[in-house]
Amino acid sequence: MNLKNTHWNMESMTSNLLHKYTPPISDYLKLQSSHIENELQKLVPLQHTSQNQLMKAARYSLLEGGKRIRPILAIATAEVFGVPVDITLRPACALEMIHTYSLIHDDLPCMDDDDFRRGKPSLHKEFTEAHAVLTGDYLLTYAFETLSNDANLSANHIVKLVRVLAQNSGANGMIGGQMMDIESIENAIDLNRLQLIHSFKTGALILASIQFGTIIGNANKEHENALIEFGNNIGLAFQITDDILDVTKSTRSNNPNYSSDIKNHKTTYVSLLGIDQAKNKVNDLLTAAYKNLSEIPFPTIRLKEIAELICGRCH
Ligand code: GRG
Fold it and tell me: Strand 116-117 relative to strand 120-121: parallel, antiparallel, unpaired?
């Protein structure tokens, strides 16, 4: 199916309404993850005329790992407007490439210096630091190549997606947030500054994922704004939950050194607010996110469930 000149939106929405049974979210996540995995396998093939080692390294980090939160958010948001998964799949994979590149670079000794990622040695440990730098660079570049080559989308859609992805991963997004984060190490920062860092560093790519869905779904301004607010709320909730997990995981394992935030002397929501207040903040953000969804007159159950999962990671 092609997005350029079809009228699938209304047809698909009607058929959604007729099919009342909604499979459990776990089935939905499994299904979407397998679509994403298959597409990534195709996009980064093992056999390459001249770059087998680069493909091997990219596949090591990109495949069979991660929760695929960002691509699934893009797919689920586009589905709100009746867009089938095959249309959103390639842009969704571009989001996962950017996310994976950021993790590869973040794990490097010059950044967070983490030896493990997604349950196995980080890329620079399994390969070399040079491999990790270049593989991250490759995935960053290839994300935009993938978007620009997407024959399912119109030129207008592609330009909008490229702009959103570049803006949200650049100076006013993920990279800017990472820079501010590095500069804040060992320095006292207040809650407002922390929130700004998080909204750039982690929230921006989550927001981009939602915006991918609104762009591909041709959402009107009102619906787009509600979903942007939804993205801001769950983006922040995601990061606070990550801060909470960083502490609770290290407490559970009886090893305070397990906490990478403590190891890196980072100010977090937990260090500023304490665990209970941090959890309350997550719940407030989730309530606000539900309210944003209530402004959309189409089925948003999947987005609600994904928001719950993101925030529920700390319970
Ligand atoms: C180095 C360019 C550059 C950017 C780094 C986002 C970021 C900026 C670094 C990630 C560091 C980090 C671990 C932040 C905490 C929140 C986060 C992004 C966690 C990992 O995301 P998940 O939980 O990971 O979606 P999976 O593995 O499931 O994809």
Answer: antiparallel
Q: CA-to-CA distance for 249 and 257, rounded, in angstroms?
A: 11
pTM passes above 0.85: yes
CA 160-161-167 angle, to 5 degrees, is 90
Ligand 1: residues with CB < 6 A are 66-67, 69, 99, 102-103, 105-106, 111, 118, 174-175, 178, 201-202, 239, 242
Residues in CB range of 188: below 8 A, 6 or more apart: 267
CA distance 281 to 261: 19
How many A from CA of 255 to the centre of ligand 1? 22
Mean pLDDT of 95-122: 96
Distance CA 229, CA 210 (A): 10
Q: How far is the CA of 96 from the centre of ligand 1 (A)?
A: 11
Of 93, 114, 180, 202, best ligand 1 pocket probe by most atoms within 8 Å of the beta carbon: 202
Summarised one tens digit per residue, pLDDT across range 117-168 is: 999 999 999 999 999 999 999 999 999 999 999 999 999 999 999 999 999 9
Q: Give residue-wise pLDDT tens across range 188-236.
A: 899 999 999 999 999 999 999 999 999 999 999 999 999 999 999 999 9
